Amino acid sequence: MAESSPEYMPPKVWRWSKPSGGTFANINRPISGATHEQALSVGRHPLQLYSQGTPNGLKVTVMLEELLALGHRGAEYDAWLIRINEGDQFGSGFVAVNPNSKIPALVDRSGPEPVRVFESGAILVYLAEKFGALLPREGAARAECLSWLFWQMGSAPYLGGGFGHFYAYAPEKIEYAIDRFAMEVKRQLDVLDRRLADHRYVAGESYTIADIAILPWYGGLAKGWLYETAAEFLSVQDYKHVQRWADMLLERPAVRRGRMVNRTSGELSTQLHERHDAGDFETKTADKLPTQE
């Protein structure tokens, strides 16, 4: 790929001629499809999740833990770890579930035929409708919830692929790119902060999939979990209402459990690489395993 510099002029036709550089250069490519044969494992529960504990992955594990906390036994799930830095998402089995090769991906095996669902927002809506929970059924409340859900889906790429990439992952620091996306992320934080100034939760006075979707990205940023020193750089402490909301949600037991599933970074005691039973949180956190990676 061409270098980014003040003198660079794009060619008439772009061609992939060399790795892009940066943190994810080993898995970036301009084509889709499988790179190798790799079948997906299938556990005993109705729902099979293939994911990693990134912000998008956390949306689904938190959702599943919330559903279980509400008493929905049909929400029991197996969570299989997909190591995206190693290219597991390009295995043939995963591509069959998600042709876009992005986590998370879900297979619902509770019916006569398996149902695949990919894209985190689609999975949240699918699960909310399947179990009749965490999404208002009709009217203005439903519209408000879905509007904020899709606000997250449309906004977070500016936070992740935009700001996060150029601030933390790009092979060189480009002032224009960092300034451009920092400005947009701060605008988004202000949108969220103003909303939460007058509402307990994002979609109103009830906890919904909108909160579940937004927390891993914007709550994670507010609490200093994303992109090294980004919290200080963006002065996230100024967004008092976002801070209040994030702290409140992080006290929820289901959120705490969901944040552990498929997690591969941080303290070993907070990592549950795979989840196949509710008891795994007590017996199979990574610091208790016979072998550690």
Helix amount, in percent?
40-55%
| Broad CATH class of the domain at 139-257 | Mainly Alpha
Portion in beta strands: 5-15%
- Widest beta sheet: strand line-up: 2-1-3-4
**CATH fold label of the domain at 139-257:** Glutathione S-transferase Yfyf (Class Pi), Chain A, domain 2
Biggest sheet statistics: 4 strands, mixed
Give the total of beta strands: 4
Q: Based on helices, strands and strand pairing, what is the structural class?
A: alpha+beta
Shape by Cα distribution: globular
From the alpha carbons, calculate the radius of gyration and give it in angstroms. Answer: 20 Å
Q: What is the straight-line distance between the termini?
A: 34 Å
The arrangement of helices and strands along the chain is: EHEHEEHHHHHHHH
- Point out poorly predicted stretches: none
Mean pLDDT: 94
Number of helices: 10
Q: Can you name the CATH architecture of the domain at 139-257?
A: Up-down Bundle
Which features would summarize this protein structure in a list?
293 residues, alpha+beta, Glutathione S-transferase Yfyf (Class Pi), Chain A, domain 2, 4 strands, globular
Describe it for me?
The chain is α+β, with helices and mostly antiparallel strands. It has a domain at 139-257: Glutathione S-transferase Yfyf (Class Pi), Chain A, domain 2, CATH 1.20.1050.10. The chain is built from 10 helices and 4 strands. Strands 2-1-3-4 form a 4-stranded mixed β-sheet, covered by helices on one side. Strand 1, helix 1 (55-69) and strand 2 form a beta-alpha-beta unit. Helix 1 (55-69) packs parallel to helix 3, helix 4 packs parallel to helix 6 and helix 5 (175-197) crosses helix 8. The longest helix has 31 residues, at 139-169. It is globular, with a radius of gyration of 20 Å. The mean pLDDT is 94.
